Amino acid sequence: MNDETQNDSLEEFEEDVTEYIGKDEHSKSLALPQQMMPRRMYVLPVSNRPFFPAQVQPVVVNQNPWQETLKRVGETDHKVMGICFVEEEDAEAGVPASEQLETVGCAVRVHHAQNESGKVQFIAQGLQRFRIVQWLRRKPPYLVEVEYPAEPEEEADELKAYTLAIISAIKELLRTNPLYGEEVKQYLSRFGPDDSSPLADFGASMTSAPGNELQDVLDTVPLLRRMEKVLLLMRKEHEVARLQSEISEEVNAKVQKHQREFFLKEQLKVIQRELGMAKDDKTADVERFEQRMAELQPPEAVQERFRDELEKLQVLEQGSPEYGVTRNYLDWLTQVPWGVHSEDHFDLAEARRILDRDHDGLDDVKDRIIEFLAEGTIKGEVSGSILLLVGPPGVGKTSIGHSVADALGRKFYRFSVGGMRDEAEIKGHRRTYIGAMPGKFVQALKDSKVANPVIMLDEIDKIGASFQGDPASALLETLDPEQNRDFLDHYLDVRMDLSKVLFICTANQLDTIPRPLLDRMDVIRLSGYIAEEKLAIAKHFLLPRLLKRAGLLKKQLNITDAAIKQVIEGYAREAGVRSLEKLLHK
């Protein structure tokens, strides 16, 4: 159709505006079958869901390009236009093509059209379904010629039964779905049992069915078939509403239960606090920290820092991040064993017995350790010394450290520095960092609960360095007897005395240990075991341990010395006994 023909059609439409009903007192009521409707009308596409006769609802559209359509409708006497459904994906592309609009739509009367924020809003009153016969204008404002399909006669009893079923379904839906307010109920009261067609359309408009299913109802003119489809949609809607109600009740029950428990707990806390039976979390934290510090003997600087941090904790809100940081700091500060020492045992005979009990052979190493302990006996302490046990893997360096701690009656703490590249592992992180923690030595004192444990630094020859710092350099301050009296951990940020700690280091070789660090250590070499010593270790230590691991008794397994010697001489010729243990395990 060309533009000239379209303009002629517009003029004909303006001349045809009198062909409608609306001049009598019933013009603003629901559309009745005998009403005369315009044969030509403007149409407006909607994408969310179709519009139905007997439906009254606000409609919002963009000013561009639909303002002109509503303007022309407003200039007519009847204020009637058509609303046609269009699939959402077609509408998202912009102005839909005329072919994308559904052929069957709903004629509506426009009320109270107004512009606001680039939108046009109006109240649409559904009147009657129509079918597009001819397109008179295929671009906005769309203009069409329509016909109004007549409903065929239906059997009265069957029609009445369907009508009553729809009325019952609508009432049930109003009961189960709280979204429908009093306005909907009042509007529904305008229908009577004889208004079968409006009731069916109104029932369909109340459902949340997809647009294509609702359009199928709008397309269906025969009343009984349409009512059957509407009843099916309303049953689905009722089932959805029932499930929503059950979910809502379940959620409300849980929320009410949690709220009730919360209020009861809060009331209990208030009652207990009034009776002096309980304290809030902050008060409990403060009292716990004060009790811990009262059991210790910290230096004056530590006590002053403790008082400052405790005062800060008392004025902070529990929910603030700073409260958590301060609380963690005080937790660490009060768990360091300030002034708590274990008593040393200087019984050289007992020390020799413990070394012989735990190790076969290594007589020269045992003699060197006894000499070291004898020096401590003369001085009254073994502090200020650093032992370095050097030897191949598997010769018992770590177990000797355990034996030394047992001989002295001290707590033992071991950690590996092999591969360590971050200086903060030694001296701690500063409190400004998220997740900051003290260094390994503070953790060792906390776990051992004494200020003079035996701390073993394993694999010190494999310590590394990176852009984050040099842990070996940080160890200089820690291990040097002249400096570790005032060791400063970055996290605690108070001076602490490590001079009472006995440090034992282990290494496989001396070449990779920094010279300044090596100069501060007493080196004890463990060369390895001869065959006879390996045999004794296998009989006294390895086999009992392997039998226990396997769940066997000694009498259930008989291994001769000759068999063990053959394994040692043929397959386990290394300096240590780790390979021997693996072979015996097989």
CATH architecture of the largest domain: 3-Layer(aba) Sandwich
Task: Kindly provide the name of the CATH class of the largest domain.
Answer: Alpha Beta
Mass-distribution shape: elongated
Helical residues, percent: 40-55%
Average pLDDT score: 81
List low-confidence stretches.
Answer: 1-34
Strand content: 5-15%
Distance between the termini: 95 Å
How many DSSP H or I helices? 21
User: Measured on Cα atoms, how large is the radius of gyration?
Assistant: 46 Å
Task: Describe the protein.
This is endopeptidase La. One of its GO terms (biological process) is protein quality control for misfolded or incompletely synthesized proteins. Keywords: ATP-binding, Hydrolase, Nucleotide-binding, Protease, Serine protease. Residues 41-238 form the Lon N-terminal domain. By secondary structure, the chain is an alpha/beta fold. The chain has helices spanning 3-15, 63-75, 88-91, 156-176, 182-188, 196-206, 211-219, 223-274, 281-294, 300-315, 321-333, 348-358, 363-379, 397-408, 424-427, 440-448, 471-479, 515-518, 531-550, 561-571, 578-585, and strands at 40-46, 56-62, 80-85, 104-116, 119-137, 142-147, 386-390, 412-416, 454-458, 487-488, 495-496, 502-507, 522-525. It folds into 5 domains: 3-147, Archaeosine Trna-guanine Transglycosylase, Chain: A, domain 4 (Roll); 156-245; 281-333; 348-525, P-loop containing nucleotide triphosphate hydrolases (Rossmann fold); 531-585, Helicase, Ruva Protein, domain 3, CATH 1.10.8. Strands 1-3-4-5-6 form a 5-stranded mixed β-barrel. A 5-stranded parallel β-sheet has the order 8-9-12-7-13, with helices on both faces. It has a two-stranded antiparallel ribbon with strand order 10-11. Helix 9 (281-294) runs antiparallel to helix 10 (300-315). The chain is elongated and about 125 Å long. The model is unreliable at 1-34 (pLDDT under 50).
